[in-house]
Amino acid sequence: MSPPNSPRLDSFRVGERAYWPEGNGKATTLDLVGRAAKVEGLNCVDLDFPDHLEGFDDKDLVARMGDLGVSLNGYAMRYYDDDAYRLGAFTHPDPKIRRAAIDLTNRELDSLSRAGGKLMTQWMGQDGFDYSFQADYRRLWGQTIEAMREAANHNPDVDVSIEYKPNEPRSFSLMPDVATTLLEIRDIDRPNLGVTLDFSHVLFADEMPAYAAALVSKYSRLLGVHLNDGYGKRDDGWMVGAVQPIQTLELIYALNDAGYEGAIYFDTFPDTAGMDPVAECAGNIATVAALRKAAAKLKHDAAQRRAIEAQDAVTAQAIVRSALYGS
Questions:
Q1: Which of 107, 131, 147, 262 has the fewest CB atoms within 10 Å around its CB?
Q2: pTM (predicted TM-score)
Q3: What is the C-alpha to C-alpha distance for residues 260 and 12, in angstroms, rounded to an integer?
Q4: What's the fold here for domain 5-295?
Q5: Mean pLDDT lowest for which of 20-29, 49-58, 138-147, 175-184?
Q6: What sign for the dihedral angle of Cα 273, 277, 283, 285?
Q7: Are 79 and 104 within 8 A, CB to CB?
Q8: Residue 192 near residue 149 (C-beta atoms within 8 A)
Q9: What is the rounded CA–CA span in Å between residue 280 and residue 14?
Q10: Residue ranges per domain, the chain?
């Protein structure tokens, strides 16, 4: 059985005017899924809510995706398309706007359940602050806990996975790193919560991806993995393994150690450089397949385990080099 591989669906908008001239250059969600289905090894997608559901019945959309050979991995909640949430979604100073954000989240959970999905990815990019003396930090923290607890309670059968990021669009995010996210999950205290690790976000947070995965698997649940790459200065979203192949390999090694069986979501941006999104996504899948093989070699290498136990970086890197490059 092929491992679940899911793309950033909007990546397939590259060149949409030329690719779908009959639709006035504007692709529908099913158009994007159909283009994504051309990628060998791609077998599921995540839908942004409410964007990708507009104009579709949720159950019908998933059924039509199935006709294309693509299943639903889950939903990703999106608030940033609405200017009303510029000062926050769950932490907006206006209680009516906070309530609207929570109600929108509950509608997403209802739609996801109807569609047969079990995973909601929550990135709270609008919830943060920009200036000193702008925010009552304890109040923002409490509002986030209250709203996330309501979301978790709304449908306990759906997993709610928090995706953290240091900043952008706000100068400071309320959930900027793995430790703060785990602290929040402890305070929310609901069993259907967990964490989504985005490789570029983790680098951006100045963290080691495999270490972050180890902490999540120890103190919470690792519910999602977004693979991409970058230079750690921003959310680059480059092709998998293009910049940090060794750190990517170690993350996959850690995922195996943690027993992670969820989807690998390729949160990459071929649109930045105008790449062919089908070829770019196929390249990501091929890279992960190669890294999985290397990680499998390392898993059964007693010398590698001894090197790690001794913190012998020279020996460990030599063994990794052999597993990855064959020499």
A1: 131
A2: 0.97
A3: 27
A4: TIM Barrel (3.20.20)
A5: 20-29
A6: positive
A7: yes
A8: no
A9: 11
A10: 5-295
Q: Which two tokens stand for residue 29?
A: 């969600």
- Predicted confidence at residue 114, as pLDDT, reads 98
| C-alpha pair distances (Å), 92 with each of 126, 187, 298 | 9, 20, 48
Q: What is the pLDDT at residue 312?
A: 98
Average pLDDT over all residues of the chain = 96
Q: Which two tokens stand for residue 18?
A: 């030329």
pLDDT tier, 1 (very low <50, low <70, confident <90, very high otherwise): low
**Distances from the Cα of 19 to the Cα of 9, 22, 24, 44, 184, angstroms:** 15, 9, 10, 22, 44
Instruction: Kindly state the tokens that stand for 164.
Output: 């953290």
Query: How far apart are the C-alpha atoms of 315 and 135, rounded to whole Å?
Result: 49
Cis geometry, peptide bond prior to residue 176 (ω within 30 degrees of 0): no
SS3 281: helix
The span from the CA of 101 to the CA of 92, in Å, is 9
